[in-house]
């Protein structure tokens, strides 16, 4: 069973999802808005979203429903969002490790997953921000929207409702660990391409080889093959 709630405006859907977790029989409960005022990204970063142009959506999933490691669950959530956008736009959609969604070298969606205990129940709180209709971004930004990257105009409400149903269907049918890892690496942004990275404020060339089950990414640098956790290395694109 699932529920989906809408708010005209809210500070952060990840923060306010707790207000609607009133149905203990529901394994999946969603909340969305098109006017998120204080969105949050990974590692304390902010997620800024223009009102009535983009989607802020959170899905609360009971941890008891998930039988994969946190890392692989994060990967699979990114795969599900990537798949939804690829099916919808019929464009090439990639995952920038660990969980940003890229179309034509621009970030169109970001994912923030947290674990919380609410009303004596443990949840994965999956926050998804999707730029849909916004046309103008900071000139130095790597951000884009579905409109800027595909030229298509999507209706916000059906987009949100269909995303909710799609994610639930995917999360009810998560494949085994090896298949999750394989799917993630098949859709990994800049995989096997020479790219520029920043490591401890020093820029150098490298090639992304693969992400592993421990949440690390392996990159072939001039000094050899090395693995990194998030925030230890930055891909410049």
Describe this structure in words.
The chain is α+β, with helices and mostly antiparallel strands and 237 residues long. It is 23% helix and 36% strand. Strand 10 and strand 11 form a beta hairpin. Helix 2 packs across helix 4. The chain is globular, with a radius of gyration of 18 Å. It starts with a strand and ends with a strand. The model has no long low-confidence stretch (mean pLDDT 92).
Sheet with the most strands, sense and barrel status: 7 strands, mixed
What share of the residues does DSSP label as strand, in percent?
35-45%
Distance between the termini: 41 Å
Morphology call = globular
> Total strand count, please?
14
Proportion in helices = 10-25%
Question: Class by helix and strand content?
Answer: alpha+beta
What's the gyration radius in Å? Answer: 18 Å
Q: Give me the side-by-side strand order of the main sheet.
A: 1-2-5-9-8-7-6
Uncertain residue ranges? none
Number of helices: 5
Provide the residue-averaged pLDDT: 92
Helix and strand string, N-terminal first?
EHEEEEHEEEEHHHEEEEE
Q: Which descriptors would you attach to this protein?
A:
237 residues, alpha+beta, seven-stranded mixed beta sheet, five-stranded antiparallel beta sheet
Question: Brief description of this entry?
Answer:
The protein contains 5 helices and 14 strands. With 237 residues, it is α+β, with helices and mostly antiparallel strands. Strands 1-2-5-9-8-7-6 form a 7-stranded mixed beta sheet. The protein has a 5-stranded antiparallel beta sheet with strand order 13-12-11-10-14. A two-stranded antiparallel sheet has the order 3-4.
